[in-house]
Design a protein that fits this description.
The chain is α/β, with parallel strands linked by helices. The chain has two domains: about 270 residues, UDP-N-acetylmuramoyl-L-alanine:D-glutamate ligase, CATH 3.40.1190.10; about 130 residues, Protein-Tyrosine Phosphatase, Chain A. About 40% of the residues lie in helices and about 20% in strands. The chain contains 16 helices and 17 strands. The strands form three sheets. It has an eight-stranded mixed β-sheet, sandwiched between helices.
């Protein structure tokens, strides 16, 4: 029998098709070895901040001496980024072995790319005998493959307009899809101050303990550090994380609240250690100085607002340029005016793939926003052009999505190495 490489396996899966539903993955989960999972499971859904929160959870649990498997999506450069054990990416050989096992177990059950990915992560985690599995919801919640598993605790980071084609066009409809990850008689932590009514109502109906940012728990940034508070639990003068932006303090506080629900006795030293090690690439990450180069996967209104808030508080001596493209389902015309006020010159390109916004639409959207722009043939060319015209005191931002960072840096390890 010919053994496929990881790339051959990935090429054989339909990476572009989104096929929501739980029946297929539930059928496979009912079969050995997936029918017995001994690890505790935390599911993380939401519009923005999922990856940062998953990583914060993993960092906290590792600092507490637990063995953790983390599943996230999408990846920036390497598929292996999606499956991590105690912060280390899974090896090609492990993922290939997982795919081969799934292929035997599934028999005639068709599986989507995301379902294969989730099952592969579960298999790898079982091989490593993890204590916790922290699983990021891919799309929505109700029909996402992660929701086929029974979790011990769930988190919804934020709810905003995104993926309208699949989830709906208003906050409450989208929130209803995401609320489905909560489990009766368990805890659900909500990481934003404006909790949608549908989440509150469902938590009441299913006897879920709902813990909400700024209502039940909070974190306050003070000179050189921050303080966390929930009920009678308080951590004062915690060190600021490497992750920049006040919203990241929210994400960490959300993760800490979740951990405190499960591991009630968490020492300050554990929290400080977790903060020291908490890093994730592509989130307002500075990868170069003089000129300053910032990369961010922001691609919807909420994440663009967070990036804009950061830029408003951190001015640049020279002009700010942006290297940008975006997927066509991200409603870029609704949020480009928000960030355009901080960008002096846009360098745009059309991404590869059928989901990409075509260059004429990009030009039109930015023109409506009143932007100055240059059209480039591809991501690397856009980055080179913007960098070449930048002086040491200027600033350059690469943004638009995980896909943008991948195309611009062409599988470079620059981001991952500095993360």
């Amino acid at each position: 029998m010919t053994v496929k490489s990881l790339n051959q396996w990935l090429d054989s899966l339909n990476q572009n098709k989104i096929d929501l539903g739980l029946d297929r993955v539930k059928a496979v989960l009912a079969r050995p070895p997936f029918n017995i999972i001994n690890a505790r499971i935390i599911t993380v859904g939401g519009t923005n901040g999922k990856g940062s929160t998953v990583t914060a959870l993993s960092s906290l649990l590792q600092a507490a001496g637990q063995r953790v498997g983390a599943f996230t999506s999408p990846h920036i450069f390497c598929y292996n980024e999606r499956i991590q054990i105690n912060g280390q990416t899974a090896k090609d050989s492990e993922i290939v072995a997982a795919f081969e096992t799934i292929e035997l177990i599934r028999q005639d059950i068709p599986l989507s790319y995301f379902e294969f990915s989730l099952l592969a992560a579960l298999w790898v985690f079982q091989q490593h005998s993890v204590d916790y599995m922290v699983l990021e919801v891919g799309l929505g919640g109700r029909l996402d493959a992660v929701n086929a598993l029974q979790s011990d605790l769930s988190i919804i980071t934020t709810v905003d307009i995104d993926h309208c084609h699949w989830l709906g066009n208003d906050i409450e409809t989208i929130a209803a899809e995401k609320a489905a990850i909560m489990r009766p008689d368990c805890v659900m932590v909500y990481g934003d101050k404006d909790c949608p009514k549908v989440i509150k109502n469902r938590s009441t109906e299913e006897h879920v303990q709902l813990l909400q940012w700024s209502v039940d728990y909070t974190a306050t940034v003070k000179s050189g550090g921050f303080c966390y508070h929930w009920g009678d639990i308080e951590f004062k003068d915690l060190p600021l994380p490497h992750m920049v932006g006040d919203f990241q303090i929210h994400n960490f506080a959300t993760a800490l609240t979740a951990i405190l629900c499960i591991e009630r006795r968490v020492q300050r030293a554990v929290v400080s250690e977790a903060l020291k090690n908490w890093r994730i690439p592509g989130r307002i990450q500075t990868i170069q100085d003089k000129p300053e180069v910032i990369v961010d996967v922001a691609h919807n209104r909420q994440s663009i607002q967070a990036l804009s808030d950061y830029l408003s508080r951190h001015s640049s001596k020279g002009p700010t340029r942006a290297v940008f493209s975006v997927l066509k389902d991200k409603q870029a015309e609704t949020w480009l005016p928000i960030i355009n006020q901080y960008i002096d010159h846009w360098f745009i390109f059309e991404m590869q793939g059928e989901r990409a916004t075509d260059i004429q639409t990009l030009k039109r959207q930015l023109a409506v926003a009143g932007a100055m722009l240059s059209v480039c043939p591809d991501g690397p060319a856009a980055y080179r052009h913007a960098l070449n015209v930048s002086e040491p005191d200027d600033r350059l931002i690469v943004l638009g999505s995980f896909h943008v960072l991948d195309e611009v840096f062409q599988s470079s390890q620059q981001l991952l190495g500095d993360a």
